[in-house]
Design brief:
single chain; 254 residues; Rossmann fold; 8 helices; 7-stranded parallel β-sheet
Length: 254
């Protein structure tokens, strides 16, 4: 992926990793468009970054997603990069499930169906560009799950698998398909902004941008902090890491 001369749409771009990426790409002179459900955080981001554009959209809504894709294609005909970053994460007790599974369904709709629907809606436009990129933001938890957030981890694992298939189907086309695999980053997701165990957001964004600059051909972007999770199975340490990781996180909750 080239890091300059792009028109970039970033979902969930008003806060956390999305905002960090948006500001980093904006600083490089790219036209950046952010989208999400919360107008206030979108406005705060665009006000702090003159020239950045924003759209309010609920990517849980299929029709709204299709309409948004059509509008963004009209408003920005040179749009050539889509970063599917929107996500929600909630703790769940699988032994005490309510009859109403609204939380789980919202996680699936936002984290998995949202990227799939937006990608499908924008793919004809992206295929017409001389070069374009779809970047899906998964998680280290796609490869070694945190048991207290089972649906979140499942959606990220599914997004990883979807990304692999999408890349294969688009080989030979002008569309690059990438996956960004974050570790635990200090954001408001699950109230992690002040957790000393989390990687500082600024450090994460800086390392990601350096990897994109130095490895423009990369299909998967992993900072050093996430490699322990990402490659747990390949290193033969999965069982021990899974047990220790989840035991530690469970103890911290009590």
């Amino acid at each position: 992926m080239k890091t300059q001369s792009n028109h970039i749409l970033i979902t969930g771009g008003g806060s956390g990793i999305g905002r960090g990426l948006a500001e980093a790409f904006h600083a490089l002179g790219n036209q950046v468009i952010i989208a999400g459900r919360r107008k206030q955080v979108l406005d705060q981001t665009t006000e702090a970054n003159p020239g950045m554009a924003s759209y309010v959209v609920d990517l849980q809504n299929p029709k709204e997603t299709r309409d948004f894709a059509a509008q963004i294609s009209r408003d920005f005909p040179a749009l050539n990069v889509v970063v599917n970053n929107s996500g929600i994460m909630r703790a769940e007790n699988l032994l005490a499930q309510p009859d109403d599974l609204a939380d789980m369904e919202a996680i699936v709709a936002t984290n998995l169906l949202g990227p799939i629907r937006l990608t499908a809606a924008l793919l004809p436009h992206l295929r017409r560009q001389p070069r374009s990129v779809i970047m899906n933001v998964s998680s280290g938890l796609a490869f070694l799950p945190l048991a207290m957030t089972p649906t979140y981890c499942a959606t990220k694992a599914a997004l990883h698998s979807y990304t692999e298939s999408l890349r294969y189907q688009l080989k030979g086309s002008p569309v690059e398909v990438m996956e960004l695999v974050p570790p635990y980053v200090a954001t408001d997701l699950m109230n992690g902004a002040d957790d000393p165990r989390a990687m500082p957001l600024g450090a994460f964004i800086a390392e990601v941008m350096d990897l994109l600059r130095t490895r423009p051909e990369a299909t998967e972007v992993c900072v050093e902090n996430v490699k322990r999770l990402r490659f747990a199975a390949e290193t033969g340490k999965y069982e021990d890491l899974f047990q220790g990781f989840n035991d530690a996180m469970t103890q911290d909750r009590h």
